[in-house]
Model the fold of this input.
Amino acid sequence: MQKLAGFLKLIRAVNLLIIALSLSLFYYLILLPVHRNILQTTLVPFGNKEFVLFVLSVVLLAAGGNVINDYFDFEADKEFKPGRPLAQGLMSLDAAMYLHMFLVFAGIGLGFYLGWNNGNFHLGYLYVVTALLLYVYSAFLKKIPLAGNIVVAGLSAFVFVLLIIFEADYLRLIHASHLFESTPYAFAVILEQMKFYAGFAFATSLARELVKDIEDHEGDAAYKVDTFAVQYGDTAAKWLSIGIMAALVSGLGYYMLNFYRSGAIKDMLYLAFVVVLPVIVTMVMTAIARQPKDYARISNMLKLIMLLGILSIPAFYLFQQTSA
Done:
């Protein structure tokens, strides 16, 4: 039982569930309704089985990235995070590397299968690039101020982008058949939604990565991991994180204004009280934080905000259905 718990902690199962939930909600409550209501067709890029495989492919890559991250952090974790699975000895380093390879190659294999099944085998190379980025991040980029943070935030946003790449390739094929003249408009609607959720994921992830760097400052400095917090100090990292959250609030404010102008008051209120208000609270928490435990709470708060943002998908869908 302890080893199972350690395995789930190693792959960061909660984060993987958020990824799976995000993709599922976007696909079933945004993408499919666009196909039904705008294209007026039940034709979709993935059947239910293929979509499960798509989500699994992304989750496998993310899990592999989490394992290799702990692999490279082993020495630092033994001293500063002894509760991590590898530091506890729940799995050997060799076993962790084999697990990483299995997860990554399984994810890449599914990616090539899905690309082939979608009529574009080359889409699988996106998985190869993603896997390489996750490895290079853990081995090198996390030691460069901001570089590693931006890569992780970018990959958080990329889960939505990858789904849209499959969708765009599919829409290109059906548009070429001249059966669906509204495909450009349908894709524009989906692309706008993707920008919102990918941008939200990027901003919250980047702010959280900076907060985690402050939390891990002592261990990173001891093992010469030159993060932004180590290079420029906790205060600079703190205010950069607050600045990113302020930019997020500003961006959400733009959408709230659009919701207000279009009469989508429920959507506006959801963003205002369920997403923006917690972000503002987190900004205040960050400004007054002093101890590593304070930053751990802020990191968890930002993860909750990510989830609340994703839950806007079913909320907006429900509001739309009840107002129709």
Notes: The radius of gyration is 21 Å. Residues 2-323 form one domain. Residues 40 and 232 are 54 Å apart (CA to CA).
